[in-house]
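=== Structure Prediction Worksheet ===
Name of assembly: unnamed complex
Input type: mixed (protein and possibly other molecules)
Chain count: two
Listed entries:
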Amino acid sequence: EDQVTQSPEALRLQEGESSSLNCSYTVSGLRGLFWYRQDPGKGPEFLFTLYSAGEEKEKERLKATLTKKESFLHITAPKPEDSATYLCAVPSILTGGGNKLTFGTGTQLKVEL
Amino acid sequence: DGGITQSPKYLFRKEGQNVTLSCEQNLNHDAMYWYRQDPGQGLRLIYYSQIVNDFQKGDIAEGYSVSREKKESFPLTVTSAQKNPTAFYLCASSIGVAAYNEQFFGPGTRLTVL
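=== Predicted Assembly ===
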């Protein structure tokens, strides 16, 4: 069974203090990895798809990277509006056909002034 | 604007009641999904549908039912058989069912049992 573990569970940063979130996974065969952002009381918002090890994607202050065992979400010079829970997920094969997403429990990021 | 809508935003259920959560998408996506989110746990798949008039059970389907009569609609019924229904329910859709097809989520419905 595919598994996704995210660390840390919570992270508090000062504005401008760069850091990284970790997503490690155990899958039968890597077929991509997704990053989402979730604000309190809202649905997850899609950020990135990483297709294979070595790939990198960037969006504003966020940069996602992927290796054969884990993915990192690097946050450069964060601002308070980056505060959210960040979720990673891998596609898992369904017995009835198709794929579901297997999610980690997320990293709750708070950026303070 | 293309997107996924869910209603209601908040729903309260009494013991023994069935309630139905609405999910509509105008993205022209074939696949739709229902996930449940509980504090401290990852999202878990309840039901999914790859195409109209077809749906399959996910990991935690007991106590739930769905229908897919139209491409754009995938309602979820929480029956009285679901013993712990209080949770945040999320509907998602994707253009197809391949591993690399991103799933896009609606705003969610928070269900509380009174």
